[in-house]
Amino acid sequence: MPKPRAVVIGSGIGGLTAAVALHQSGWQVTVLERAESLEPVGAGIGLAPNAQRALDVIGLGDEIRELAAWQGDGGMRNPGGRWLSRTNSAAAAERFGGPLVLVHRATLIDRIASRLPAAAVRTGSPGQLADPGATAGRPARVATPDGEIEADLVIGADGINSGVRRTLFPDHPGPAYAGFTTWRVVVPAPDRPFEPHETWGPGTLWGTQPLKDGRIYAYAAAVAPAGARADDEKAELLRRFGGWHDPIPGIIAAVEPGQVLRNDVHHLIDPLPSFHRGRTVLLGDAAHAMAPNLGQGGNQAIEDGIVLAHHAAPGGDLGAGLAAYSAQRLPRTTDIVRKAAKVARLMSLTSTPAVLVRETLISAVSRLGPGIVLRTFDGIADWQPPQRTYAAGAQDVHDVRH
Questions:
Q1: What is the pLDDT of residues 340-369, one digit of tens each?
Q2: pTM of this prediction?
Q3: What is the 3-state secondary structure (H, E, C) of the chain?
């Protein structure tokens, strides 16, 4: 009996995770990517324990854990350098069953893609949903430059501006501007050691985090009009953050011209009615794009891919499986999108009185202990996949937590 065929439109983190999980469960998988290579757009990504446990299902979790670079203390500061809250890697690992791992997106993409057959990924091959397969007995169809592909399952993993989403839900308003822009850089580590930190100023944010390879992943955000750009983004970072505490000025100084990635933040603050229609399903940013303030965008895409493959086992009722996927993923991701938006609004405060109140509250909460600060991620970072894994403490098959 031939294997059922799945077509994944988009080769981002979520799409590739779904492709590997489906391949391992017995699907014939084709990944369509419009770009000429799998070189990802982006810099670093933080993988929380929930994503690491999801990656355990496809045999990748321990590889990722080995890349953990954060050891010891860290926390939140103000631009002058005063610590507003403190936590440490051990407390986070104890609470959620693993460390936070910062990796370069290129490293993660390469590790996931290496678990697919070489012919499974077609670069330079954009895909457009021609028929979602909503009619009983009919396959879904995807249009490509080389002709149409019929599939038992189509996965829209084509990002925040998803064409698949627009085809499935043409009346949905789509992504909305979250009110701020972001910058990301990867640079060599400074000579002087530092403790990982996220620093909040009036309507601004800066984060400095170590990577395992010795480089530094830094990110920044600021309230700004949509579409605003500077002729020289490094100079813009110096203007906004050059007077902040060490090591921020040195990090900016180490940036090479043209290295700065800048993107406005959009999110799907209005949830979709469903994540599927017919034989077609959405995941990742196509389904639930969120502000980056909880660091969960890529993590939730990885969860999506694993849960989708669990419910789309060959030989089962695909319609029921996709309905179960939507029923489990939509409430969870909607809640995280809203939580991320709340943190984004807190970060976006610009008036001096509001910023002082924010700093006072953060400091007061921090004095109650690192567990209070980490509580923000309860119900997020402690998620367990539906399959048995080799992750520490996962002795039994767990139900997916909503």
A1: 999 999 999 999 999 999 999 888 877 776
A2: 0.94
A3: CCCCEEEEECCCHHHHHHHHHHHHHCCEEEEEECCCCCCCCCCEEEECHHHHHHHHCCCCHHHHHCCCCCCCEEEEECCCCCEEEEEEHHHHHHHHCCCCEEEEHHHHHHHHHCCCCHHHEEECCCCEEEECCCCCCCCEEEEECCEEEEECEEEECCCCCCHHHHHHCCCCCCCEEEEEEEEEEEEECCCCCCCCEEEEECCEEEEEEECCCCEEEEEEEEECCCCCCCCCHHHHHHHHHCCCCCCHHHHHHCCCCCCCEEEEEEECCCCCCCCEECCEEECCHHHHCCCHHHCCHHHHHHHHHHHHHHHCCCCCCHHHHHHHHHHHHHHHHHHHHHHHHHHHHHHCCCCHHHHHHHHHHHHHHHCCCHHHHHHHHCCCCCCCCCCCCCCCCCCCCCCCCC
